[in-house]
Amino acid sequence: MNRRVFLKTMGSGIASLALPSCIANSNQLKEVPQAHKKPNIVFILIDDMGWTDVGCYGSEFHETPNIDRLAKEGMHFTNAYAACPVCSPTRASIIAGQYPARVGITDFIPGHWRPWEKLIVPQNRLQLPLEAITIPEALKEQGYTTAHIGKWHLGGRGYFPENQGFDMAIQGGTNRNDKRVTSFTDSAIEFIQTNSDKPFFLHLSHNTVHIPLEAPQELIDKYQNKAKPPTGVNNPTYAAMVEHLDNSIGRITKKLDELNLADRTIVIFFSDNGGLYQAYGGYQGNREPVSTNEPLRGEKGTLYEGGIREPLIVRWPGVVKPGTSCSTPVTSVDFYPTFLEIVGAKGNPSHVLDGESILPLLRRTGTLKRNAIYWHYPHYHHSRPAGAIRDGNFKLIEFFEDGRLELYNLKRDISEKYNLAMKNPAISAQLQKKLAAWRDSVDAKMPTPNPDYDPSKAHEWGRR
Q1: 26, 49, 162, 277: most buried by Cβ count inside 10 Å?
Q2: pLDDT tens per residue, range 333-360
Q3: DSSP label at residue 148
Q4: How far apart are CA 5 and CA 251, in angstroms?
Q5: Which residues in 273-312 are b (16+ Cβ under 10 Å) and which e?
Q6: Are residues 357 and 227 part of one domain?
Q7: What is the pLDDT of residues 401-457, one digit of tens each?
Q8: 212 and 345, same structural domain?
Q9: What CATH number is associated with residue 398?
Q10: Across the strands, what pairs with 147?
């Protein structure tokens, strides 16, 4: 028996949690009905969508009626985070339920580096390890049929979705982003129809709104002719991509209605990292601004809020009260234990889970036990190698080149304009100590001094 099979056959155990600033006042929702004990789960993961890219999160230019409807019919989170500011690590955190530093995937696969920078960044793992007990594997043991459709980015041959517990997997198709949205949605609808008589888990992972910018021409024309708000980045092609994606989500929810599955299906909408400000030359031939994360600071590839804070919507009829919001900080490692608790499964004790179930938040019956969440991004991207911790309203960023600290009170300063590190040395020291202890606990790999450091070439990218 190989290690993977051995781990899958072992016993289990994950504690259920009491978890809100989402707590109901007096008339909380009833216990989950029997019909909802093992609901279908449709997890929709978007690539590079910023916190304010959709209407219900503040966009005044993009039209997203279907996503907005999900928010009206469910709960939207205002402090939801990706575990990393780039794609592969966050995707690993969802599928494995572990922080990227524990998995060893801390940059997008295969990763990149700058040979002449101050620091040599850690080697990035090139695949999600087969030893990980993935969420589709755990759900299959509970009678679920599982499918991954769309972008994977967690390893090549031998490490594809079908090697990680999914019964069905579709990754390829047309090279155009706008065509992929349609083809992936077609496949998702076919999977839902085929498996409508049994519990299913659908992981629908769109490539859009990642560059290259591509959308149906009629939608681009619509936004070129639409009056633009006086502020913000209002790019017609990007806006068309967002609406095209929204139309896809509308097709999914419509099919659930047609098949009478909506009342026993959880629909989750999330993004893997923050939005990218510019369309970069290799893809577009220009550096045109296409998006903004304002009022959040930063973008994809940074540990500022614009790189890690995400839109998160959960619709679950009969359990999640429509039109509610939750300000409790949650992160992408929380999905795995949440799904386990929803289906009544116990996790495998050999597989460490770093998150907490947010089911009590969804039911509005409690709050989270933890008081901090963490990030480890020891790579050069749109910022410098760094780690971060959010504890309550305070967030500390530690930059690894020189030990520089930045401390923000996110309740008062969502845009991270005012560095409080010098004014609050005690808080800074306390959070830095907690962050270091966490790194030790997950065996986070740190960058090291570069003997070939050359300031004149430090900005150049290279291959390992």
Answers
A1: 49
A2: 999 999 999 999 988 989 999 999 999 9
A3: E
A4: 38
A5: bbbbbbbeeeeeeeeeebbbbeebbbbbbbbbbbbbbbbb
A6: yes
A7: 999 999 999 999 999 999 999 999 999 999 999 999 999 999 999 999 999 999 999
A8: yes
A9: 3.30.1120.10
A10: 168, 202
pLDDT one-digit tens code per residue, 228-238? 988 888 999 99
Closest CA to 68 of 249, 260, 320: 249
According to DSSP, residue 437 is labeled H
Per-position b or e across 143-175, b if 16+ CB within 10 A of its CB: ebbbbbbbbbbbbeeebbbebbbbbbbbbebee
At position 432, the amino acid (one-letter code) is Q
Calpha distance 105→110 (Å, rounded): 9
- Identify whether 457 is part of a domain: no
Closest CA to 99 of 84, 77, 110, 112: 84
What is the total count of domains within the chain? 2
Peptide bond into 317 cis (omega under 30): no
Determine the average pLDDT of the residues in 212-232. 92
Which residues are CB-contacts of 19 (< 8 A; sequence separation ≥ 6)? 328, 356, 357, 358, 359, 360, 361, 365, 366, 367, 368, 369
User: Which residues on adjacent β-strands are paired with residue 406?
Assistant: 397
Give pTM, 2 decimals. 0.90
Q: According to the model, what pLDDT value does residue 23 have?
A: 56
The reply to whether 93 falls in a domain is yes
The token pair at 461 is 């990218």
SS3 content of the chain, % helix, strand, coil (to 5): 30, 15, 55
Determine the residue type at 187.
S
- Spatial neighbors of 159 by CB under 8 A, at least 6 apart, are 127, 128, 130
Sequence-distant (6+) residues with CB within 8 A of 170 are 147, 148, 149, 150, 184, 187
Residue 270's domain comprises 35-371
